[in-house]
Amino acid sequence: MASSSNAYVYRPSTLKDLRGILDLAGKNGRTIAFRGGGNSYGDAFGNREEIVLDLSRLNRILEWDPTAGIIRVEPGVTIDQLWRYVLPDGWWPPVVTGTALTTVGGCAGMNTHGKNGWKLGTFGDHVLEFDLMKADGEMVTACPETDPELFYAAIGGFGMLGVFTSLTIQLKRIYSGLLRVEGASCPHLGRALDYLEEHLDDSDYLVGWLDGYARGRSLGRGEMHRAVYLAPGEDPSPQKTLQVPYQELPDSYFGLLPKSSLWFYMRFFLNPIGGRLTNTLKYTAARLLSGEKGRPYTQSHVAFHFLLDYVPGWKRAYLPGGLIQYQSFLPKERAEAGYREILELCQRRGLVNYLSVLKRHVPDKYLISYGVDGYSLAMDFKVTRRGRPDLVRMTRELDEIVLRHDGRFYLAKDSVLRPEVARRYLGEETIARFKALKAVYDPAARFQSDLWRRVFS
Questions:
Q1: Are 243 and 219 spatial neighbours (Cβ–Cβ below 8 Å)?
Q2: For residue 90, is pLDDT > 90?
Q3: The three-state (H, E, C) secondary structure of the chain, written as one string
Q4: Structure confidence by residue, pLDDT tens digits, 317-333
Q5: pLDDT in tens, 325-376
Q6: What are the pLDDT digits (tens) for 139-190?
Q7: Among 73, 237, 265, 408, which one has the highest count of C-beta atoms within 10 angstroms of its own C-beta?
Q8: How confident is the model at residue 28 (pLDDT cuts 50, 70, 90)?
Q9: C-alpha to C-alpha distance for 34 and 44, rounded to whole angstroms
Q10: In whole angstroms, what is the distance from residue 267 CA to residue 226 CA?
Q11: Is 1:322 a contact under the CB 8 Å cutoff?
Q12: How far, in Å, CA of 388 to CA of 319, rounded?
C-alpha cells in the first residue's frame, strides 16, 4: 500500500473471456498485466492507465488424483482453496507462502518460496506441467522434459511471457494434520545462522525472526523455529487432524478480541518506541519459554504456515503510507558479514525495521532467479510521507551491500529495485535471454506491468 496506480480491470471467468480481452487489448493497443490474489508487496500486477486482468474467477479444480497426489487447477485457485481440497485425502501443498490467500498462478509467476526452501526448493519445483496462453490467444503446453526453456523462464517470469491457464502440481503426502515444532532463542546473528545450519538434516521447515533493534554483541538476536512432519502412526487421531475444521484459525483471540479488529491496535506499536518494545518483549519471551535448547510442541499446518492470516487486513495498520519490504538473498559464506552490515546501516540511519524474517535457500534452475546457497532476510519498513525519501535512499545503500556480497533479490516483494541493480545481479546475458523469449512468445510486447517497465524496460 506504499504505491498505487489506476487501470482498467477485467475479471474473466472462462478461457473464451480471456481470449476476448486479449483480442480487445490488441485491437486498441493496450498492454496487460495479471493479478492473482493481490499479495505482491510491490507493483508486480500494476499497469498504470492500461489493463489489469484479475484472474481470481478462473479458480476451478480441473483434475485430482488422490492416489498419486497430482492435481490440475486453474490459475486463480488459492493456496487456501487448494489445501482445503486435498488435506482430507492426506496431501499438502509442498511449498506455501506466509498467507494462504496467494493464487497458484501468482505463486508460479513469481516462483514463490516457503519455510522449506533449502529442502523442497521453490513452488515451481513441484509444477509438473502448465498451459500458457500467448498474447495472440494461442495455447502452448510446457514441462521440464518437452520445453525446458519456456518452462524455466515462464515460472518466475512474473507474467511477461503469457498467462497460465492451468497448472499441474505434485503435492506432498502427509500422515497427520500436525507438525512437531521447536522454538529456540539465539543471542546473536552468528548463533541464529548456526542454528539453521545445524538443523538442515533433521528439519522439514526452518524459519527465524530477528530483533532489528538489538546492538553490539546482541546484534541479530532472535528466535528460530524448526518443524518436522509426523511419521505414520505418530498422530493418534489423524482422522481428526486431517479434517478442515481442525485446521481452521480461530476468529478471535482469547475468545474475546475479534481478529478482524487487531490491525487497529497494531498501529500503536508501528513506531520506533513501539517497535523496540515489541521486539524486546518477543525476544525476552523466547528466552524464558524456549531458551537456547528449544521447546518442542505440536501445531497444525495452517497455524504454523499462515502467520499473516492471523490478522486479517494486517497491512491496514501501516496506513496511510503503507510498507516496503526489503528482501535480500546472500550466499552462506557472506551472509553473516552482509546481514551485519545491513542491520547496522538501518540503525545508523534511524530506520530500523519492525519485522525481520530469516530463511534458508538453495540455487535453482529458473531464468529470473533469486536462489542462492544461503539465506534470505525480509525486512518490513513503514513508509511515512516525511521519511519516504530517506527510506528510498537507504534501500540504495542496502542494494550496494547486497551486490558486494554476491546477493540477489525477489521480485514478488520488491518495490524499489532499479534497472542497473537488476543487470548487476542477474547479468546482461540472462536479461537478454529473457527478452529474446519475450520476443518469441509476446512479439508485440502486449504483456507489461509497472514492475516490468521499472526494472527491465
A1: no
A2: yes
A3: CCCCCCCEEECCCCHHHHHHHHHHHHHHCCCEEEECCCCCCCCCCCCCCCEEEECCCCCCEEEEECCCCEEEECCCCEHHHHHHHHHHHCEECCCCCCCCCCEHHHHHHHCCCCCCHHHHCCHHHHEEEEEEECCCCCEEEECCCCCHHHHHHHCCCCCCCCEEEEEEEECEECCCCEEEEEEEEECCHHHHHHHHHHCCCCCCEEEEEECCCCCHHHCCCEEEEEEEECCCCCCCCHHHHCCHHHHCCCCEECCCEEHHHHHHHHHHHCCHHHHHHHHHHHHHHHHHHCCCCCEEEEEEHHHHHCHHHHCCCHHHHHCCCCEEEEEEEEEHHHHHHHHHHHHHHHHHCCCCCCEEEEEEECCCCCCCCCCCCEEEEEEEEECCCCCHHHHHHHHHHHHHHHHHCCCEECCCCCCCCCHHHHHHHHCHHHHHHHHHHHHHHCCCCCECCHHHHHHCC
A4: 999 999 999 999 999 99
A5: 999 999 999 999 999 999 999 999 999 999 999 999 999 999 999 999 999 9
A6: 999 999 999 999 999 999 999 999 999 999 999 999 999 999 999 999 999 9
A7: 73
A8: very high
A9: 8
A10: 30
A11: yes
A12: 13
Residue with cell 497458484: 104
Place of cell 490467500: 101
Total number of residues shown for the chain: 457
pLDDT of residue 256: 75
If you search the block for the grid coordinates 529495485, which residue do you land on?
Answer: 417
Whole-prediction pTM: 0.96
Residue whose entry in the numeric block shows the C-alpha cell 524455466: 152
